[in-house]
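Design request, tokens follow.
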């Protein structure tokens, strides 16, 4: 005599297998009955994501001039001169021609901050820390460029001139 439990299991397995195969043959749209409509992505300027950025308005770096005031606490100082042609490689840093502690008085430049000679653990080094060596990671040439998108940014209250 056949085992009824075994026959029942075999039938159940066969039915589940048939249903599974049947579902895999359905088009994907039939499986997503209540799928939300696709989201239309766009940039902050309202352009399609794949669209090219618009041509700039000709903004250029300013010639040497007094530094622009900082807008937030701990903002790295902006570079008040052009850096076109400045090379910063692992072996040479053009910025140090003027901003090093041995040359800043002679050139009239701001000397590199003592914080640039510390490791992330606070250990003081004899030369600039590798994590602070590439100046343009934090410091950028100043420019009176218009914001790319409208915003409500305000300078930090402690920095505002009244």
């Amino acid at each position: 005599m056949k085992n009824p439990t075994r026959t029942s299991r075999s039938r159940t397995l066969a039915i589940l297998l048939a249903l599974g195969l049947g579902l895999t043959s359905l088009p994907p749209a039939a499986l997503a009955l209540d799928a939300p409509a696709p989201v239309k992505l766009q940039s902050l300027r309202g352009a399609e994501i794949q669209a090219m950025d618009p041509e700039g308005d000709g903004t250029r770096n300013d010639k040497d001039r007094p530094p622009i005031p900082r807008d937030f606490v701990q903002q790295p100082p902006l570079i008040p001169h052009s850096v076109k042609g400045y090379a910063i490689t692992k072996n040479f840093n053009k910025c140090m021609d003027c901003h090093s502690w041995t040359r800043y008085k002679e050139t009239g430049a701001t000397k590199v901050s003592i914080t640039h000679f510390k490791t992330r653990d606070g250990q003081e080094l004899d030369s600039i820390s590798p994590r602070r060596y590439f100046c343009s990671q934090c410091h950028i040439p100043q420019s009176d460029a218009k914001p790319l998108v409208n915003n409500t940014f305000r300078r930090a209250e402690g920095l505002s001139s009244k």
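Comment from the thread starter after seeing the answer: thanks! The chain is about 20% helix and 0% strand.
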